[in-house]
Amino acid sequence: MRIQHLDKNIKMNLLEDLLKRSPNNYGKYEQGVAEILDHVRSEKDAAVFTYTEKFDGAKIDASNIKVTEEEIKEAYELVGEELTGIIRKALFNIRDYHERQRQNSWFESKPNGTMLGQKVTPLQRVGVYVPGGKAAYPSSVLMNIAPAKAAGVDEIVMVTPPGKDGKVTPTTLVAAHEAGADVVYKVGGAQAIAALAYGTESIPKVDKIVGPGNIYVALAKRAVYGHVSIDAIAGPSEILVIADETANPRYVAADLLSQAEHDELASAILVTTSQKLAEKVSEEVDGFLNELSRSEIIRKSLDNYGYILVADTMEEVIDIANEIASEHLEIQTKNPYDIMTRIRNAGAIFIGEYSSEPLGDYFAGPNHVLPTNGTAKFFSPLSVDDFIKKSSIIAYSQEALGAIHTDIEKFAEAEHLTAHANSIKVRFEKK
């Protein structure tokens, strides 16, 4: 990996380089996505079936688009007891973590006749998109469904692309069944997002769409926002490791590569105060590249967006970490908790040399659906909050309103909204 001394020019170039990976820069795909959305909106099931055959090579119709109990049973047999058991262990941790995020409605009454509060209501129907095709992501199934279940969502509709045989990846199905999906439909891509957003004869319209996908899925989610809510527009995966001279270079190298293997746009960055560590990590990376199965993808990722940055002080390290606002941030230093308190922007923070990033991807419990491309400056991980909505509650007695009605009337009149003022005034007209 390239080793560079961190200075103002390197910092500026790095930040500009990373932003190039944003889905907002893929406008050339927008027209094709828009055509798919319009077609599904007008032709509904017919368009979904046409696109599924075109893009996935599967012949799907109204009779087989919905996954059956028999298909779920077959999936369990194919997955086997060992992996099913691991999925259940992971789900237990994920469910336990998210159940602690639950919020309750609250109300406060005062002696003057006022009552204020907040009513927390789960979303009624949510759509979960799960990638398919060449790869299977049962972990994403768990991470998207578990918080929805913890929030109390009434109905969880999952969509995922089928293989050419018209079947869903077995591990995906087992994870969906374990996590509590109410129904699974065999459709993927932008056409699946359109079906969830607008509804078809087979697939019901949902209130919100969550889940990762390729650029077509990301752009489709962005396009339907407003018809439905969405979680976020996911960008390529990224990891930033903060380390000092006490870090284990082999661990650091392995963790950097754990994200670089996702795709050629993934970003893997080490920021350290130790030149010696930087050199050792680079050597370890070279060694791993001779062993790992996805080394070709990793090499391209590192060539494009891989960096080892050597800073003069830990303050500079923390500053660049907060500027990058990485999806995953590992801290492998002598005093990691002190560093953690100074981190303002990160999707998930992994503390200590045994808190490797894949721990969060699969098993620890916190959600692995995280803000990318610097959006950790203002977005949070997927959580129970994403599956609830809040209503304000206001109740005033005649006496309580009477004590303040002239203030409200004057405020409204100051904004030249006389109907607003009149709505209050008529309640205190002399009869």
UniProtKB/TrEMBL annotation:
Single GO MF annotation: histidinol dehydrogenase activity
Among CDD domains, the record links this protein to: Histidinol_dh
Q: Cite the annotated pathway.
A: Amino-acid biosynthesis; L-histidine biosynthesis; L-histidine from 5-phospho-alpha-D-ribose 1-diphosphate: step 9/9
Key words, A-Z: Amino-acid biosynthesis, Histidine biosynthesis, Metal-binding, NAD, Oxidoreductase, Zinc
Q: Which residues bind Zn(2+)?
A: 259, 262, 361, 420
The organism's superkingdom is given as Bacteria
- InterPro entries reported in the protein's UniProt record: Ald_DH/histidinol_DH, Histidinol_DH_CS, Histidinol_DH_monofunct, Hstdl_DH
Residue ranges that the Swiss-Prot or TrEMBL entry lists as coiled coil: none
EC number(s) given by UniProt: 1.1.1.23
Pfam families (alphabetical): Histidinol_dh (PF00815)
Q: What is catalysed by this protein? A: L-histidinol + 2 NAD(+) + H2O = L-histidine + 2 NADH + 3 H(+)
Catalytic machinery residues: 327-328
Q: Which family does it belong to?
A: Belongs to the histidinol dehydrogenase family.
Q: What is this protein called?
A: Histidinol dehydrogenase
